[in-house]
Amino acid sequence: MATLNIKNLPDALYKKLQAQAKRERRSVAQEVTWLLSKALSPPRQLSILELKGLGKEHWQGVGGAEHVANERASWD
User: Fold this and answer.
1) Most buried of 5, 16, 34, 60 (most Cβ within 10 A)?
2) Where in the sequence is the domain holding 33, given as residue range(s)?
3) Number of folded domains that form the chain
4) What Rg value do the Cα atoms of the chain yield, rounded?
5) Are the beta carbons of 24 and 16 closer than 8 angstroms?
6) What are 23-67's pLDDT values in tens digits?
7) Is residue 23 part of a domain?
C-alpha cells in the first residue's frame, strides 16, 4: 500500500480534517482516504425518481423514453 505525505497543509484545513474524522469516528488517515476515494469516484447516476424537489410524484410509472416521446409529440 502506498504512503502519501502532504507538505505545507494549512493548519486550519488540518484542524477541519481532524474534526471531521472525529465526527465520523475515523483516523485522519482513514478520513483522507475516504475523502479522496469519494472525490475521485465517478458520480453515481440517479434516476429521476431519486432527485429531490422535482415533483417525483408526477414521474411515478413514467419511463424516461416515454416522457421524451410524449414531449416531442406535443411540439407538433
Assistant:
1) 34
2) 11-39
3) 1
4) 22
5) no
6) 999 999 999 999 999 999 988 887 766 766 666 666 677 777 877
7) yes
